[in-house]
Design brief:
By secondary structure, the protein is α+β, with helices and mostly antiparallel strands. The protein is built from three helices and six strands; from the N terminus they run E-E-E-E-H-E-H-H-E. Strand 2 and strand 3 form a beta hairpin.
């Protein structure tokens, strides 16, 4: 498995509301509600931390889930969000704010 890095898209507006995160895709004015698990990934999405580390250190630890399944679910979610222009995905670390 190659490393996957994720960063919040700089044009996406967001706010945490209790255990969820609300994200607005600026290009199309869509609103997305991220559940508690997805919100953890969103907040850790700095473009420099590999997704595997985010899943292992934040998701598996906090929610007591299996790494392989959690990683597959996280990658599927992030690929869907990337298609909507909410996150940026790369096999190399991303610079902060780089589109």
């Amino acid at each position: 498995m190659s490393e996957l890095y994720v960063a919040r898209h700089p044009a996406a507006a967001w706010r945490r509301l209790e255990d969820e995160v609300i994200v607005m895709a600026a290009q199309e004015s869509w609103l997305f509600t991220l559940n508690e698990v997805a919100a953890e990934i969103w907040e850790a999405a700095d473009g420099r931390t590999p997704l595997a580390s985010i899943v292992r250190d934040r998701i598996c630890e906090k929610f007591e889930v299996d790494f392989e399944q959690a990683y597959r679910d996280a990658e599927e979610l992030l690929r869907a969000l990337a298609e909507r222009g909410i996150v940026l995905l790369s096999e190399t670390p991303l610079e902060a704010g780089a589109p």
